[in-house]
Amino acid sequence: MNAFYNDAIRFIYVTIKVKWTVSTDLLRNARYNKGTAFTKDERSKFGLTSRLPPVVETLEQQLQRSYDQYKRLGDSLQKHVYLSDVFDTNQTLFYALVTRHLPEMYPIIYTPTESQAIKQYSKIYRYPNGCYLDIEHNDPEYMKEQFAEFGKPGDIQYIVITDSEGILGIGDQGIGGILISVAKGHLMTLCSGLDPNRFLPIVLDVGTNNKDHREDPKYLGLRKDRVHGEEYGRFLENVIHSVKETFPNAFIHFEDFGRSDAKPVLDRYSPKLPCFNDDIQGTGVVTLAAIFSAIRLTKSKLNEQKFVIVGAGTAGVGIADRIVSSMVKEGITREEARDKIYLLDKQGLILDKHADRATEGQKPYLKKGSVFADQSSSDEVDLETTVSTVHPTALIGVSGQAGIFSENIVREMSKHTKQPIIFPLSNPTDLMEAKPSDLNEWTDGKGLIASGSPVPPVKRNGKDYYISQCNNAFIYPSVGVAAVLSECKTLTEEMLSSAADGLASTPRSLFKSDDSLLPDLTNVREVSRHVKFAILKQALAENNCADYVPREDEALKKWIKQTEWNAEYAEYE
Ligand SMILES: NC(=O)C1=CN([C@@H]2O[C@H](COP(=O)(O)OP(=O)(O)OC[C@H]3O[C@@H](n4cnc5c(N)ncnc54)[C@H](O)[C@@H]3O)[C@@H](O)[C@H]2O)C=CC1
Ligand SMILES: CC(=O)C(=O)O
Ligand SMILES: [Mg+2]
Question: Which residues form a coiled coil (predicted)?
Answer without folding.
Answer: none
